[in-house]
Amino acid sequence: ALAGIIAVPIARLITHPIQELVEAHHRLMNGDMTVHVEAYGNGELAVLARSFNQMVDTLHRTQMELIRAEKLASMGQLAAGVAHEINNPLGTILLFADVLYRETDENDPRRADLQMIIKETNRCKNIVAGLLNFARQQEVLLQETNLHQVLDQSIEAVRHQPTFTRVQIVRQYDPAI
Fold first, then answer.
1. 0.70 cut: is pTM over it?
2. How many CB atoms lie within 10 A of CB 62?
3. What confidence tens digit (pLDDT) does each residue in 17-58 have?
4. What DSSP string describes 150-170?
C-alpha cells in the first residue's frame, strides 16, 4: 500500500510531461505554431520539452521565410507580366517616333520633341528590362529546343502588328539545326 501511495505521484510526475508533449505534438501536426510545452526542472523530460519548443520556433521561422519567399516569387512573376505588357507598347512608340524623326527635316522644330520621346522611351525600356532581369533570377534550365518552333512562335507574336502589314516573311529553315 505504501509503495502504491508513493508510486502513483511519481508515475504522474513522469507521465504528465509526456502526455503534454504528445498533446503538443498533435496540436503542431494540426498547424498550431503557437504550441509550447512547459519544461519542469532540469531532467531529461525538461530537456526534451525545451528541445520541442526550440523545434517549434525553428519550424515557425522556416514557415514564415517560405511564405515570404513565395510572396517574393509571386511579385517577381507579377513584375515580369507587367513588364512584358508594358514592353510591347513601348516598342511601338519607339518605332513610330523613330520613323517620324527620320522623316522630319533637320530644321523641323518637332525633331527635338521626337528625339526626347525616343530618349525617354528607351529609358522606360531599360527600366522594364531591369524588371524582367530581376524576375528571371532563377536557375538556368538547359534543354534541347526546337529552334524552328521558337522562330515560328516569335514570328507569330509580331506578324499581326501594324508595322509588319507589308512585310512578307519567308521561312527557309536549315533542317540540320
1. no
2. 10
3. 888 889 999 999 898 888 999 887 788 888 888 999 999 999
4. HHHHHHHHHTTSGGGTT----
